[in-house]
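Obj: model holo form, ligand = LLP.
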Amino acid sequence: MTTGQNESRLVLFPPTAEVDGKGHLVIGGCDTVALAEEFGTPLYIFDEQTLRQKCAEFRNEFGKRYPDVAIVYAGKAFVNRALAVILKDEGLGLDVVSRGELSIARSVDFPMEKIYFHGNNKSAGELDMALESKVGRIVIDNFQELDMLAGMAVQRGAAPDVLLRLTPGVDPHTHRHISTGVEDSKFGIPLASADEAVSRAMAAPGLNLVGLQFHLGSQIFEVEPYRDAIRVIMDLAAEMKARHGFELKELDVGGGFAVQYTVDSTAPPVADYAEMITATVTEKCRQQNLELPKLIIEPGRSIVGRAGVALYRAGVVKEIPGIRCYVSVDGGMADNIRPALYDARYEAVVANRMNDKEKKKVTIAGKFCESGDILIKDIDLPEIAPGDILAVPDCGAYCLAMGSNYNASLKPAIVMVNDGRARLVRRRETYEDLLRHDVV
Ligand code: LLP
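Output (holo structure tokens):
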């Protein structure tokens, strides 16, 4: 039996989370306190079952509503080789934005036809690697890229399948740093220039224009912005058909599906997004007399967010009488910059005292040299002593992926847990790793 804070917060952890007889948090059948002991902290845990369940949920919820769907995981949320193997096994595609992400995919023989290459400033080197690797789709973001890619493709005698990324001008009501579908954005081609982009891409001998893409933003709690954007883009597709004979064979609606980070901020289920997206595409096709395009979904956070848990060890506990109690942990903004960057709110539990009731409001601070390095401001927790283990749920997305070596810190280890077994899928960085690239 769990009590108090732990009971309600358990829902934020992977569904395999439970509390054992010692009052320890268990994930994927593994005692997190023992994991912290064995692998050290900070430690990131990924629950394999949750990852696979999430892949299946997307496949099923979209698949049962629409005849031709591809779920393409957005690797920017987090990707490493072990995760790429699981995604491949689950039949997902992969959205990459760099040679690094593509290298990870190639290293595990990820099917190249399922790779979507994105980016607002792809270099010639990146495009060259995309062509050489024969990735499935290149998502063209702007006119400069369109011309460069067309030229490179002709030179190679290739004709890559491409999508055009458009900004539908729809506000998804999310943090401005992660809002991308509005007109004033560094990403994508504005609607006003879409006609020119479509006709130029269609005319380019090196390009095979198969469809259109948009991405509204991230952590979108509403389903209506998808409806609004699909309507805009499909009206445009119909116009382009009439004017240029353009066939919308593929429609890529991006990612952005929200994840629940705190007990009081529930996110819509995948089914709600799936319903709105597939119903709108179907309705629009009927209305505009278009063939149903292949539908592409690019979830990132919603696949990995909940599967990931960060473990930290508490160090200094500093009480400022009448003001605040700071509990400092051995990680922080170098492994999770989200609170500092977006005011992102997380919750936590004390993994080795799951049956203790919360007693006190504390602030969880990181160990990095910046006052803004606060992981969680004001959270009710049981009394914490130095050495206790804090577990933070929903750390699978955009934490390690945006990690740094600030203060010459070492990037954490990652373990994958499943059915009582834990395997290291990234070793902790060492000081040799840190010094390796410096030249004196
Ligand atoms: N597709 C494209 C073209 C994207 O740019 C993104 C995310 C996604 C898909 C996946 O979005 P998701 O389903 O993960 O929301 N660092 C920020 C999030 C940046 C999102 C960037 N693009 C954060 O920590 O909240």
